[in-house]
Structures
1.
Amino acid sequence: MKVCKERTVLMAALTLACCAQASASDHLPAQVRAEVDAQCVVSDASRGQAPEQFPAGQDGTLWLVPCHIGAYQTGYQAVYQSDDGASRKLLFAKWEDRSWTGSDALFDPNFDPDTGILSDQYKDRGAGGCGGERTWRWESHTFKLITYRARSCSDDPSRYPLVFEARQDDAHTAGH
């Protein structure tokens, strides 16, 4: 009898978790959902992970959608949706192996809609001894890179060098 009760409780918990995930991602507009990878539309209510939306500029919305929930960081994809409903996935610069590449991933991002500043920090291994810190500013329907600090796992762990900084005349903080 005790095993039956435990199974019933377990099934109820799984059902609630499934329903919580479905309802958390149900508010994601179809146009936004179509832009992100399939694993990004699920949410983890037990960790407080769900798609977030923010006003972006005068005429759109920024969606940050969790994709890969790990032990020490969560990967997100970002989608800009204009007021007319048109959506597009945003891409971001990434410094990797001493070279530039592009990525659709952000890690534990923070966005301030008042300043238009988006930042994230990624770890290439759990201890955080290597990875990067990136900051962008929202401008004309996209993000402009302001600063980027990164170090590879083979670099001196005491240094976290600046690999990119926008020119001073480009680094204003108007935000919109």
2.
Amino acid sequence: MFALYLASGEITRLVDAPLFVVAAQLQEGELAAWVDDDVRDDTHWIDDAATPQPKADYTLEALPIPCTVTIEGVEYHCTEQPEFEFDAPGTYVILVDAGPRYLRKEFNIENTPLLA
């Protein structure tokens, strides 16, 4: 199987076909690397040596920087570790995208009101 990917390492798609078929499917800016069947675009990226690598994991308290955090459809570009505070009670979904070397993750924060 081949991973078609960009210079950034992002896998754009996986193709299980002979090399001549894969070569014909390459779009501008795409490269191809032979990968094992367990490689997936959501869990791997391709390094400079055309070798698949697992995407790194992280926690909400230690985000990879820089990253993009999306809350209620609004994107925030973070260049330092953010602190999350919400005025209204409820559950907030925080989406994090730190590029092809890291997992795209979703975190839920429950904001409960303080009792006076």
3.
Amino acid sequence: MKKLLSLCPLLLLAIMINSCSSAPKPGDQNQGEANYRIHDIWVLKTLAGESISVPSGNLPSLEINLTREEMLGSDGCNELSAPISSVSDAKIVFGPIRSTRMACPDQDLASRYTMALSEVRTYALQELNLMLYDGDGKELMKLLKVD
């Protein structure tokens, strides 16, 4: 019994250390379990309900990096980046989107993709698909996990 009682302070200390290490970090903004599944690289499948195919093969892509709280990607021609201004289990909002300014053969797709990203407010995951929605719940785009 004395051995058991002498181990109690050590067990309590181990529990306290473990609970401190799993505490949310500043800036985590209520990140839940679902968030870590979006921390990945995605390629565009549909935009405004239309299937996307690009002759050059340079499909728009998106990388969501929750560690650095930023979005990186490509509109198929230009490189994009933006801070993640808010994220939770079903909500994601990107800050101002920055872009390179190269002359692109399909500027229409690039413009529509970038505009849609600026309207994103929520998301849902279904298998290897990430759906991004606007504030009214309208699906803006569907992306496929590629990494």
